[in-house]
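This follows on from our talk about sequence and fold. Can you supply me with one protein entry, sequence and fold together? Could you add the entry underneath, on a fresh line?
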Amino acid sequence: MKAIIIGATGLTGSLLLNKLETTKKFKSITALVRKEIKSDTGIIYKKINFEDLPGLKIKADAAFSCLGTTIKSAGSKENFRQVDFTYNLDFAGMCRKNGIERFILLSALGADPDSKIFYSRIKGELEKEIKAMGFKYLTIIRPSLLEGPRKEWRTGEFIARKIMKIFNPLLMGNLKKYRSVSIDNITDIMLKESFRKEPGIIIIENDEIISRSSRH
């Protein structure tokens, strides 16, 4: 199989990229990046202008979308929407036009196109648009706060992760779905979903991520 990924330099994407390579089940792995990256591995880092995503020609069997930012990092709601909605949507549309049938999207807990919360609404609008594209195998993963070593310092998230480590065991019953989750578990699920045999749309909520990880 051939894989293509966007958001490969982020927290989840970088770990997923490593796992895609180590599985040895993909004969080629292409990561779309905005800055040139030199690699001594078999991964192909293709530098592109994300504005050019719709017209990109590429061959792949499975596509992974891990691209995301924060309003603070983006600088404004408009810039955030461009990254989290427009670029992701353009990537999905490009994949569909190029005949890619498997698409795995990293979304977020609470994604809802009708949400009053801006972040959740953008995530929900993206999901809605991608669902309508007609991928034969579409997996949408909705994690809560992500646990893992970030390359960029995000003070708010650092504090939140510290707090969640204390509160996670206390979140029981209906509150369990809000527990933070490890990127290791999420990337394992993303990798597994790329080989799914049953066609259709699957949405994996945060509580299912937690339950799947507890089985290992």
In short: The two ends are 26 Å apart (CA to CA). The chain has one domain: 2-209. The mean pLDDT is 86.
